[in-house]
Amino acid sequence: MGEKRGLLVVLSGPSGTGKSTVITALLRRRNDIRFSVSATTRAPRPGEEDGREYYFKSREQFLQMIAEDAFLEHAEYVDNFYGTPAAPVEENMRAGYHVLLDIEVQGAAQVMAKRPDAVSVFLRPPSLEVLEKRLRGRGTDDEARIASRLAAAQREMAQAKHYTYTVVNDDAEKAARELDAILTAELCRSDRR
Ligand code: ADP
Ligand code: 5GP
Fold it and tell me: Mind listing the pLDDT tens digit for each residue in 123-136?
């Protein structure tokens, strides 16, 4: 790709809102974006592959990565650790790709503080009732975990005001189109040209 650095894009939103679904739709629309694969201590869900959705790590391995300062940001969320490996983000941006981080609100706040240039987008569910239905429909969490994720969702929604953009995921293709439009507009900003 060209000599220009890519954008750093932070996408947050309550678990079950549809971030993965919308990101998949966005990656089909544009070939200049790289998804940042996070490390996590959570167990893989059926169908998830190590190195594709996440790098699945033991707690010890994760703590070792923290000690080596390998993360751009990391946070604890519903009893597990999640973190963004810093090196691939830097390499991809230097190669001119936009790098998309799917991270929760504490990690997003760390990135926004470290990289004021990052583009921040909050993905909202149409309502908490719809969010609960999506979490149940996904069928990957037991009742206790669904309750924790819903409680976290209410706290997370209060953080939407810290993001430059908010997109509502009622229709995943429409949400992907809006994200695409946000990227296009950001690339046209006079201060980036
Ligand atoms: P997240 O990555 O935010 O945790 P997922 O992408 O796993 O969320 O989506 C959670 C569930 O909601 C999945 O079963 C997914 O198929 C469904 N879903 C996502 N977006 C929509 C949408 N716009 N309309 C209806 N269902 C959706
Ligand atoms: P899930 O377990 O549903 O895949 O993800 C739970 C939450 O962790 C989601 O809100 C997701 O955005 C967030 N997450 C995934 N990777 C990272 C990461 O590297 N850092 C942080 N801070 N959050 C992450």
Answer: 999 999 999 999 99
